[in-house]
Amino acid sequence: MISARSQSFVLGLIGISLFLVAWEVIGTYHLAGLTWPPLSTVLAFLTTPAKLPLFGRAAAASFTSVAIGYLCGAFGGLALALVSHLVAPVRPGLDRLVAVIHAIPSIALAPLLIVLASADATPPVISGLGVGYIFYVAATSGLATASASHRDLFAVLGASRLSVTLRLDLPSAFPAIASAMKLSVPIAFIGAIIGEWFGASRGLGLLIVSAMQNFQIPLLWSAVLITAIASLTLFALFSLAERLVQERMR
Amino acid sequence: MTATAASISHLLRRYWAVALVVAGWQIWVSAAGLSSIVLPGPLAVAADFASDPLSYAQPAALTFVVALAGLLFGFALGAGLAILSWSSRILNGLLTPLGLIFTSIPVVTLIPIIARLLGYDLRTVVAIVSLICFFPAFVYVGAGLRALPPGSDDLFRVFGGSKLQKFTRLVLPSAVPNLMLAFRLTAPEAVLAAVVAEFLMGTDGLGYMFRKAAGEFDTERALATSLIATITSVACFGLALAAERRVLRRWT
Lengths: 250, 252
Hints:
Chain A has 10 helices and no strands.
C-alpha cells in the first residue's frame, strides 16, 4: 500500500514529465507553428559553450538587479510597515500611498525612473517597488496578529511601546513575513525584466525583447527558461524557509 | 459646514502622503527648471489631459474591454480546470504541481513568447491577459473546493447525497468566496498586463498610446496616459471589490 503522500508525489512527477514531453512533441511536429521550438532544441542552444558568456553576462546583470531590488524592497517595506505600526496616525496615508504606487503600471514608471535615476538603475527600482508592496502589506497585517492576552501581559508588566513591538508584535509577524519572502520572488524577477525592457544596457530582459523582435526563437525561449528556473529555485527555497518558520511559530 | 470639514479631514488623513509626493514633484520640476521633454510637472500633465480628454477615452475603453475579456476567459478556464481536477484525484495529482510551478515563475516574461506564437494583434493581448489570470483562478478556486466547512462532508454522506449533489450544494458554494477573492486580486493586474502587452506589440490601446507619445518625446501625454492606465486599473479593482461584496452578501 503506497501512502497518499508518495502517490501524489509520483503523480506530480508524471504531470511535469507529460508537460515536458508535450513541449517536445509540439515543437518537433510544428503543431504550434515555427515559433515553438522543441525542448531539446532549447536545451541544446542553452548549453552551447559559445553561448555561455552571452547568457552569463545577461544573467549576472539581471540577477544583480533582482538581488538589489529584493533586499531594498524587503527592508524598505518592513521599515515602512514598522513606522505605520508605531505611529498610528500616519497609517491611512501610507496605506493609500503604497496602494497608489502599486497601481501605477510599471511601464509608466520606467520612463520616469530613467529620468530620475538612470536606465541601469530602473530594473532594481521597479523590482524593489513590487517587493516592497508585498512586504508592506504582509508586515502591517502580521504586526497586528498578536493576541489580546499577550498584549495585556506586556501592558501589566509595564513594557514600553518599543519593547512590545520588538518582543511581541515583530515575532508574531514572522509567519506573514516569511510568506511575503516567498511570494515576492516572482515579483522581483518581473520587476527586473520589465525594467530592462526600457533601454537597460544588458540583462535577460533585454535579451528576451531583442530576440522577440528579431525572430531568434531558441534565444527567446532560452532566456525565458533561465529566468523561470532561477525564480522557481528561489521560490522553492523560500517555501522551505516559510514552512520552518510556521512550524517554529506554531 | 462641519460635514465638509469632516470629509476634508477624512481625505487629508488618507491622501496626505500621495499629495506630498505630487507637491514635491511639482516643486522639484519648477525649482530645477527641467524641460518638459525631460520631466513635466503634474500641473502640465493635468493641463494636457484637460485640453483633450476625449482622445484618451477610446484607448482606455479598448484596454478596459480587452482586459475584462481576458480576465473572464482566464477565470472560466482556471475555475473549470480546478473543478475538473477536483473531480478526479489523478488529474489533481497531475495538475497541482504544474499550477504551483507556473505561479512561482515570472509569467510576464512569457508575453514575448506568446506574442511570437500568436502574432501581434488584439486576440494575442486577450490571450496574454487570460494566461496571467488563469493561474490565480486555478490555485484559489482549487483551494476553495477543498476547504469545506468541518462536518459538512459527513452530513452529506449520512443523508446519502450523490457526488453531483454534494458538488452543486456544498463544494461549489464553498469555493465562491475564494473565487471572488482571486477575482478582486487579479482584476487590476489584468489591466496592467494588457497595457504591457499593448506596449510591447504596438497593438491599439493605452499601452500603444504611451509608447507612441514616449517615442515622440511628448512626455506630458505619456505621463497622462499612464495616469489614465492607473485610474483604469484602480477602477477595475473597485468594480471587482463591489462585485465581491455583492456576491458574498447574497451567499452568506
